[in-house]
Amino acid sequence: MASQAANLWVLLGLGLAGILMISKKLKKTVREDFGAFLDKLLLLPPPPPAPPKAPHPLTGLTFAVSDLFDITGYVTGFGHPDWVRTHEAASSTCPVVSILVEGGATCVGKTVVDELAFSISGENKHYDSPTNPAAPSRIPGGACSGAAVAVATKAVDFALGIDTAGGVRVPAGYCGVLGFKSSHGTISNTGIIPASSSLDSVGWFARDPITLHRVGHVLLQLPFATQRNPRQIILADDCFQLLKIPVDRITQVVIKSAEKLFGRQLLKHQNFENYIETKVPSLKEFARTKAVAKVPTSRLLANAMLLLQRHEFLQNHGDWINTVKPAIDPVISSQMCENPELTSEDIENLNAIRNEIRVAIGSLLKDDGILVVPTMPSVPPKLGSKEITSEDYQNRASSLLSIASISGCCQVTVPLGHHEKCPVSVSFIARHGGDRFLLDTVQTMYKSLQEYSGIVADPKSSKKTITQEELAEIAKEKGNQAFKEKQWQKAIGLYSEAIKLSDKTATYYSNRAAAYLEVGGFLQAEEDCTKAITLDKKNVKAYLRRGTAREMLGDYKGAIEDFRYALVLEPNNKRAALSAERLRKAFQ
């Protein structure tokens, strides 16, 4: 403790007004954080704006970054002490980190990654592997193991990682948290150590879908838009055959949740391998040039991903490895050198595969579809087990992970409780560029997925009495359907039923207000919106609906205030902007 107290506090400019950096390095042997952190530091956000302006979007949240992201004054370690020894401290902070700090979040540390971020096991002999808090005798998954562990242990609200061949998705699934891999190229990789430039995608971990969504909106710099629900949810049946746990443990959770929220008509089943075989002709050429016969299409796709990963990794870091000759784990070293050099024809073919599968998935899912696959084929393997390096495990895992990696599509890992005391998860994939839609879908489905996960895992629980909160949600969903069908009075009755069952949910009051507006019940609408705002001061729809009600009641000053506050909460909300400006001009 004395040595820690003696450390210097250093103020470093980030190029962002009002951001301070205060660093305090901790010994790597400290294990109270489950071995997640390499360094503790503090990047403070700028001061919050004065009212009535809304606070920064990430105010109050803390986060950590995998040791692949540059932070001024620190050597970005890449999971290896020899890399630290042979590289200088970063002279600037990665833009992705800066955007989050500028958005109101506080960065508190750098976390452990696999050796050279190359593996998916989460084990690193150089820094003591992070402990999986959800299953301490099991691997945490990698490459960004420390980031997942930091979120799972509630040390931070969210954490950043890089997903090349599963680096975010795998540890999220194994540690029981949400993990989002963004569409390739949608978030800048500047200031991040590259592993495989064609595959690397920025990703992040969170414990709840609201935080996942908030972080995504800042990183992706998304303007305001109405939330969209999926119109098709496609289960890749052949992918689920790769599971080594009961298939129904995952699929039934998704099916029951989708049926409850959207109706059975949205659900579809697809043999994904057969679909890809017909839509990605370059895979056949790949099989021919590599002299592989009777290999499943999913394996060919996995081999293409691994070839590209190894080729680009050695292009980026081969000279350093040959010069420094770092001590690399024999398993990782053998994987790096497993395949010969690629010819220009090979690279051209791999790029053709990437382009064709991206188009194929886009054609399958369009703008409103979700592909459902297992995240990983099994529960986390035991620490030090031979399963991790077995050909069967590697083949199954890479077959699943390659779909989003090689296509560049976005994918989210969603935890679904436990099977035999180990975390299990499912993954949703959307088309390339469908990140907002995927974030919306997770936010919509998460609560229901957790509910049915408990029921499927424990069939006896399905016989338990449905709680009032669950009955309230059912009434609300029926009210939503009645509203869509323009049955206003029926919708009001159903929302009222939901409120009687659970009177602390802002959405129920706000939704009933929308129905009251349709039948001219402006006083009731204003009253409901006021109640909703009392329960949730950031309920934008409640401010918009109360503004409309007040305008109809002649309270123009109150209406302008509501529209303006909605605009503060969502600066890009066109409805709020137009309404406030219209009233301002009319009553100047």
Automatic annotation (TrEMBL):
Residues 55-208 form the Amidase domain. Gene3D superfamilies: Amidase signature (AS) domain, Tetratricopeptide repeat domain. Keywords: Membrane, Repeat, TPR repeat, Transmembrane, Transmembrane helix. Coiled coil: none annotated. TPR repeats lie at residues 540-573. InterPro entries: Amidase_dom (IPR023631), AS_sf (IPR036928), TPR-like_helical_dom_sf (IPR011990), TPR_2 (IPR013105), TPR_rpt (IPR019734). The chain crosses the membrane at residues 6-23. The keyword Iron does not apply. The keyword Transmembrane applies. PANTHER family: AMIDASE 1, OUTER ENVELOPE PROTEIN 64, CHLOROPLASTIC. This is Outer envelope protein 64, chloroplastic. It comes from Camelina sativa (False flax). The lineage of its organism: Eukaryota, Viridiplantae, Streptophyta, Embryophyta, Tracheophyta.
